[in-house]
Amino acid sequence: MSSRLGSEKLEDWVALSLMPGLGPGSIRRAIARFGDPGDVAHRVPVPELRAVLGLRDPAVSALAAIRPNLRRLAENEIRRAERHGIALVTSPDPRYPAALAEIPDPPPILYMRGRLDEGIVRVAIVGSRRASAYGRRVAVGLAAGLAARGVEVVSGGARGIDTCAHRGALEGEGRTVAVLGSGFLDPYPPENVALFEEIAERGALLGEFPLDAPPRAENFPRRNRLLSGLSAAVVVVEAALRSGSLTTAAHALDQGREVMAVPGPVSSDQSAGCHRLIQQGARLVQRVEDVLEELSPMYAAAVGAPPPDLSTLPGSRPLRGLTPDEEAILALLRDDPEPVHLEGIVESAPFGVARVQAALFGLEARSAVEQLPGGYYLARSGK
């Protein structure tokens, strides 16, 4: 949408978003045809909108019914958002994310809590709501490892992998962005309300749906284009062949973003979608560095990725380039010649489980630590 619209009233944009039957694509076409969002919302006759947008009878009836009250509804939406500390960011607003402005059918208005800065590298981590213990561990470790390197982790706030990704980023002392598939006043899933509050304080909550919008099934595929749109890459941790996470990967390809996937057990239906993505050319992800290496060189200066020569060194030469967390966990394991169970490491570590898992993830990648059956870990000699 052109910059000439920057002077339009917020109420007009909110009114547009409340018009039944008009999604982002329809609103974009209507603005292109009629020019002024206030005209589209309040003055262009409904039959003319129907002709231009190809609206069906139910949408036409709903539009005709809401038109007399649309201005009042929009003003009320703005007041309620203000009371709840929710910013309404329209496409002409300088706060509108530049990455989303580039995607097909960007949302005309965003509901936002928290802060979304420009010039930040973001990576989406998505996957199954019915995540396995393996998938949850990998999601937490990847998210915490990326957060430790200054990458903001984007996900959808859902159960399973999404929740693990957000928690991993937060426990890894980083920032995370949750894109909701419902209105802010009807958050989904409800058990994540406390998590959403923490995300708003230490990252950002985003959505394009009105405040009271329920979590309808059709909202989530639409939401997924924003997950990929905000991100330089999408990492699918665990997904079945018909998982909604694969729609996020498809959006990423359409938007020119990188697509990566974590392999799982060959017998696992939960990882079949990831295996299909890898067969189709997605980067196979085993460690944080796999993600960072796949990012475009334009992002290299913005992340704290270690230089390539700081990986495992041969013989008895010491490892360099370890994070403080990795050094702490390696020291714990070196103090015990016997394998140590994950629970024992967590009990002894001076920080939480997410950071422990991220550190173990990095140490395994450098061959400094070996994972043994049963969840035990052993420091390798000479490292």
Strand proportion, as a percent range, falls in 5-15%
Secondary-structure arrangement, i.e. CATH architecture of the largest domain? 3-Layer(aba) Sandwich
Query: How many discrete domains?
Result: 3
Question: Termini separation (Å)?
Answer: 56 Å
Percent range of helical residues: 40-55%
The rounded Rg comes to 23 Å
Give start-end ranges of low-pLDDT stretches: 1-7, 305-318
CATH topology of the largest domain: Rossmann fold
Query: What's the CATH class of the largest domain, please?
Result: Alpha Beta
Q: Major β-sheet, in short? A: 9 strands, mixed
* Helix-strand makeup class: alpha/beta
Number of helices: 17
Strand order of the largest sheet: 1-2-6-5-4-3-7-8-9
- Shape descriptor reads elongated
* H-E order: HHHHHHEHEEHEHEHEHEHEHEHHEHHEE
Number of strands: 12
Kindly state the mean pLDDT as a whole number?
88
Structure characterization notes:
- There is one protein chain.
- The N and C termini lie far apart (56 Å).
- It is built from 17 helices and twelve strands.
- The strands form two sheets. Strands 1-2-6-5-4-3-7-8-9 form a nine-stranded mixed β-sheet, sandwiched between helices. A three-stranded antiparallel β-sheet has the order 10-12-11.
- The N terminus is likely disordered.
- The protein has three domains: 112 residues, no CATH class; 181 residues, Rossmann fold (3-Layer(aba) Sandwich); 72 residues, Winged helix-like DNA-binding domain superfamily/Winged helix DNA-binding domain (Arc Repressor Mutant, subunit A, Orthogonal Bundle).
- The protein is an alpha/beta fold and 383 residues long.
